[in-house]
Give the backbone structure.
Amino acid sequence: MNNNKDVVDLIYHIKYKEGNKFLKAFLYSFKNKSLLFKGFVILALSRLLQFFIVILLTITFLYFLIFLTGDVATPDIAKFIGLLVFSLIIVWIYLGLSQSMYILYERPKIKLFKCIYYSFKLMRGNRASLIGLYLIFGLWFLLGLVALVVGVLWILAFFEVSRVEFYQSLKLNNEGFITE
């Protein structure tokens, strides 16, 4: 197995059933410039939200450490609560957007805002499961670091396949969620 594509092909037997759909989808985006644009916008939004999540949660953690020292004033408590609420809102938006790339992959002609809308609709009630998946793989990632980076490469491939499987299970539980 050379990369993630081989792992996904092996799991879903795509290479033998559908004529390697992944390579065709990759090349299709270069022929269709609007698809390349939609994928870039979704990926940029996702990465921007991830950046804000890391920054906000780091600042929130630092405020929490200040609370532990005992140097707490009333305005600091209000800032901490506001920061925590804002962080949770950003996480909620990120989780809602998380399935957009898979929807775009399966339906390349879908409009950008409909793709994002369907992702939020698909994630309704399933955000806790995805947070659990991220937490479990965060622990696996730390364990992979102990294995001197080789474990990290294995975990990243396993993580991507697990996210695809998560999307497939969401799709099965919400049959007919895309009306296009």
Remarks:
- The chain has a mean pLDDT of 81.
- The CA atoms of residues 79 and 85 lie 10 Å apart.
- The radius of gyration is 19 Å.
